[in-house]
Amino acid sequence: MSKAIIVKETGGPEVLSFEDYDPGKPGKGEILVEQKAAGINFIDVYFRTGLYKSEKMPFVLGKEGAGIVSAVGEGVTLFKTGDRVAYNGVNGAYAETIVLPAEKAVLVPEAIDLETAAAVMLKGMTAEYLLRRTYPVDSDTVLLFHAAAGGVGLIAGQWAKHLGATVIGTAGSKEKCDLALKNGYDHVINYREADFVKEVEKITGGRKCDVVYDSVGKDTFPGSLDCLRMRGLWASFGQASGKLEPVDTQILSQKGSLYMTRPTLFSYVATREELEASAKALFDVIASGAVKITIGQKYKLADAEKAHRDLEGRKTTGASILTI
Predict the structure, then answer these.
(1) Is 246 buried (19+), middle (13-18) or exposed (0-12) by CB count in 10 A?
(2) Which residues does the UniProt record annotate as the domain Enoyl reductase (ER) (predicted)?
(3) How many Å apart are CA 187 and CA 167, to the nearest integer?
(4) CATH of domain 2-121+294-323
(5) DSSP assignments along 48-99, one per residue
(6) What pTM was estimated for this model as a whole?
(7) What's the rounded Cα separation, in Å, for the pair 139 and 284?
(8) pLDDT-derived band of residue 241, with 50, 70 and 90 as boundaries?
(9) Could you tell me the residue ranges of all domains in the chain?
(10) Is 90 exceeded by the pLDDT of residue 117?
(11) Parallel, antiparallel or unpaired: strands 2-7 and 59-60
């Protein structure tokens, strides 16, 4: 019998229960993974609170992790016992062991340790699709990335700078601004002390940004739109500060024929080919040293409640993981 964090009812961090859990044996096309770490993400908060609906109740929380394959089910050819693997988009990561579809996992290169792999499968692959596919960033791009000192933000800042972009970020303290500046950002605006819309206009000399990547939501709308040049793109990929009210699309025309998208990672890794390509791009950029991963917080599996309180209280920087 292993242990897991189980949600029996939606609500605050206090609903996270550390209990005995039997993941079962791998069936056809499945693998059993002895986990080394699981990533902590805002999507976990959304499922815990009920903002995103779980398919079943109770359920084991968590969407990304990494570990060692300890058993394979019938028909599995992608992996063998002893392989180092990581995954995302599979429910049940907050656990010592997990059974998952083999097609949802990828091999972890020897150059990447398993804690790092667990920390980046969601955040790093989110940065990958945002910068390379939602809006292909290059040396002509001027971008704004909210929550620059967060898990996705620190990866995106380095990766965007590697691609040659002018990278502007926002953060909520001097310490977080300083951290972002060390991770690829050319300019970081403390949104608690300055109006980020006015600061973006100053920084860009009135040109504004080609794209704004916004995982904050309620607190940054409609300011994000005012940071965009004519026909710029607002990529709203999260809502850490609260759910956005319905957006009247007329505002997009009023502010310069803007584009809006609400992307999710799972639409960008919907096929095995896309998943492997995204993972390869991520692991390659980490192995090359162009992107360094900051694991700002490590919690024991039993301390998931504290981890969620810290995440929601904006007390974290970089990635957070549960060690197992």
Answers:
(1) exposed
(2) 11-322
(3) 7
(4) 3.90.180.10
(5) HHTSSPPSSSSEE--SEEEEEEEEE-TT--S--TT-EEEEES-S--SBSEEE
(6) 0.91
(7) 20
(8) confident
(9) 2-121+294-323, 125-265
(10) yes
(11) antiparallel
Q: Which residue has the tokens 């950002």?
A: 185
Closest by CA position to 18, among listed 31, 29, 7: 7
Residue type, 233: L
**How would you class 47 by CB atoms within 10 Å of its CB: exposed for 0-12, middle for 13-18, buried for 19 or more?**
buried
Nearest to 26 by CA among 81, 72, 86: 72
Domains 2-121+294-323 and 125-265 share a fold: no
Q: Which residues neighbour 178 within 8 Å (Cβ) at sequence distance 6 or greater?
A: none
The strand pair at 30-40 and 319-323 is best described as: antiparallel
Please give the helix or strand (H or E) that residue 104 lies within, else none: none
Mean predicted confidence (pLDDT) in 199-213: 98
Cβ atoms of 144 and 200 closer than 8 Å: yes
| Structural fold of domain 125-265 | Rossmann fold (3.40.50)
How far is C-alpha 293 from the chain's CA centre?
Answer: 13
Task: List the alpha helices (DSSP H) in the chain.
Answer: 42-49, 114-120, 123-129, 151-162, 174-181, 196-203, 223-226, 250-254, 265-268, 272-287, 304-312
Class of residue 171 by CB neighbours under 10 A (exposed 0-12, middle 13-18, buried 19+): buried
Tokens for 149, please give them. 């000192």
